[in-house]
Amino acid sequence: MSVSVPSFAKINLGLRIGALRPDGFHGLLTVYQTIALHDVIRVSVVRGSGIEIRCDDPRVPCDSTNTCYKSAERVVDALKTRGRVLIEIEKRLPVQGGLGGASGNAVVTLLALECALKKQLAGPERSRIAAEVGSDLPLFLIGGTVLGVGRGEEVNPLPDLPAIPCVIALPEIAVSTPKAFRDWDRLTPPAPSDRMLKFSREISAWLTALPEGGRRRSGVSAKAKSGGRAESLLLDLVRAGIENDFEKVVFPQYPELREVKRVLQVSGAQYASLSGSGSAVYGLFASREKAAAAANKLAKRGTKAMVTTTLTRRQYWKKLQNSD
């Protein structure tokens, strides 16, 4: 049986880097948001044994280092099943772009393999496998707006933002996340625990303005017109002061990324940021028309840019479950 599933991307709505932990990872605090851009994963199970990865993109490893391979290996072991697993990856997202492409691919491989085998893992087992394979994987088991702590693998669903028009700028730059962390460590930021606490307060301030039961806890009325609710929430996000720490080390090395963010801002983005460690830079807009105009401006400057939208949790799972 063959199963084809879209593998969606994510952006980070702010990201704070904490102290280096004893296990070699940094403490992180971030808000993940799934978006509609995606790869496609096709999983087939045939007679035989082993796992095979196929991908036309030469930057994607097709051996046991691939996150899809690691995910499938653990699923096969946990379900105690037999067969040869073929995983075909149709890459549409950038490699090393900060959009969580490899992580999303691994989670979708898990879900598609369950479907192909007509067996299902328990929820805690899914979460365990996801966290073992990589830090960003567990968010794709939730979708929508998600709080990430620990090294990013401890996730909790947040009240969903509505679908918001988004521009994803894709400069032809590959940013190494391990190197970005090493560069961050060389900055030796003072009192990282205080910075994490500050970001926690920023997120809390932002969440107090999110709608609850159709009303805003901040007491500010949302606009009734289509797009008004999204626009007011974006303004709340800006007022909260949420930022991505990676910009402090990535932008000095790649000033063209800082310029992309500037273009998005002057083009009307109500919030713009590097996603993860980059190189993707995104902007959130009050309307699709404004987003399209910003994307055109970037394209004229030679930067690939795509107009998309954020995905709520319901939209995310509906699209996954309606796949072939």
Topology pattern, helix = H, strand = E: EEEHEHHEEEHHEEHHHEEHEH
The proportion of strand residues reads 25-35%
The CATH class of the largest domain, by name, is Alpha Beta
Give me the CATH fold name of the largest domain. Answer: Ribosomal Protein S5, domain 2
Q: Uncertain regions: pLDDT < 50 for 5+ in a row?
A: 213-227
Rounded to the nearest angstrom, the radius of gyration is: 20 Å
> What's the number of structural domains?
2
Shape: globular
Please give the largest β-sheet: 6 strands, mixed
Helix-residue proportion: 25-40%
Distinct helical segment count: 10
- CATH architectural label of the largest domain: 2-Layer Sandwich
Compute the number of strand runs.
12
Helix and strand composition category: alpha+beta
Alpha carbon gap, first and last residue: 11 Å
| Integer average pLDDT | 87
How would you describe this structure to a colleague?
By secondary structure, this protein is an alpha+beta fold. The protein folds into two domains: 2-160 and 313-321, Ribosomal Protein S5, domain 2, CATH 3.30.230; 165-309, 2-Layer Sandwich (Alpha-Beta Plaits). Helices cover 37% and strands 26% of the residues. The protein contains ten helices and twelve strands. The protein has helices spanning 67-79, 101-117, 123-133, 177-187, 192-207, 228-239, 247-253, 255-266, 288-300, 313-321; strands at residues 2-20, 26-46, 51-55, 84-90, 145-149, 154-157, 165-169, 211-212, 215-216, 271-274, 281-284, 305-309. α1 runs parallel beside α2. It is globular and about 55 Å long. The N and C termini lie close together (11 Å).
